[in-house]
Amino acid sequence: MIDRFLEKIIKKKLSDAKAIIITGPRQIGKSTLLQQCKTKFKQPVAWWNGDETDYRTLLENATSTKLRSLIGKSKTVIIDEAQRIHNIGICMKLITDNIKNVKLIATGSSAFELANKINEPLTGRKWEYHLYPLSFGEMVNHTSLIEEKRLLHQRLIYGYYPDVINNPGDEIALLKQLADSYLYKDILTWERIQKPARLEKLVQALAFQMAQVISYNELGQHCGLNAETVEKYINLLEKAFIVYRLPALSRNPRNELKKSFKIFFYDNGLRNAVINQFNPVNLRQDIGQLWENWFITERLKYNSYSEKYVSRFFWRTLAQQEVDYIEEATGKLTAFECKWNPKAKGGVSKAFTNAYKKAITHVVHYDNAEDFLL
To answer: Does the pLDDT of residue 93 top 80, yes or no?
Structure first.
């Protein structure tokens, strides 16, 4: 079993009175993570699954009295797929506030429903964490740095979903099943989207334009949607942990893009499944996009699991000068230029270093990526 970095963080939070919320896409290993933590849970444990109709019915409008009865002598209550339960935030607040000496843990695979239902009721009463696909760092700990460097070509194509990692040889079938069965499940369930074919077409367009500056209008023309609907759908795709946006850094609006953003996927394998492209690295015309998406996403995981809080950007001028990725922490900027080939010429844009003279700059390639991820 592959150890998750979030496991240590969760275990440290088990002794206080706050609820623990773990978000992340379906099939990412949230339930497995809790199984790995179970030896530290106060016993006995009540494990409720929001995907099951009977639990949803029992918990939708539960009172404190009813919850006490359901919990009984349990000292730990786990609610899996909590976003499926109507009024789950109120239910969790009642447990946290009124039923003492019970540790509440909830998982959810769609941020838009879970966040809407818990943020206000549980203000100041929760720890919230995100579980990502397996990270480069987690895999290095599981195998070795040498092994993960050797497998990096494969990871760029097939990604880091646990099932994909654990079943070598079946990567394409598993990714296609994941894309077909789970990709849109929460969005279609909760938002009742009437034209899922256009949503699917939008995801494919985003996959082809991954790591590029996005235009709502252009995407809408391609998918048969208006710009407002495109923006709404991208919001939902973000909240379902399929894609995320990287905004532009703009401190000088006269010559820098200010309202633009790029789209990245949380997992390279899922992105490649959407467009059915599994050719090896040496045959890919999009290797630059794959490498940029891989590094920026791995850096996101690294910062999250290290509990480092950074703001994240890309940078581009009206003259098309660009920096792939920038982090800002405590007022300091660190810029990264992503180059798959260690021998590729060029570094961080001089226009950027002239404009931001105190920024730290790095060129990230195959030979040194681990320096920024471990």
So the answer is: yes
Q: Which residues pair with 262 in a beta bridge?
A: 213, 246
- pLDDT at site 310: 97
CB distance 251 to 231 below 8 Å: no
Burial of 269 (C-beta count, 10 Å sphere; 0-12/13-18/19+): buried
Per-residue model confidence (pLDDT) at position 253: 67
Question: For 115-173, how does the pLDDT look when each residue is reduced to its tens digit (9 = 90+)?
Answer: 556 656 777 888 999 999 999 999 999 999 999 999 999 999 999 999 999 999 999 99
Q: What domains sit in the chain, N to C, each tagged with a CATH number?
A: 5-130 (3.40.50.300), 136-372 (no CATH)
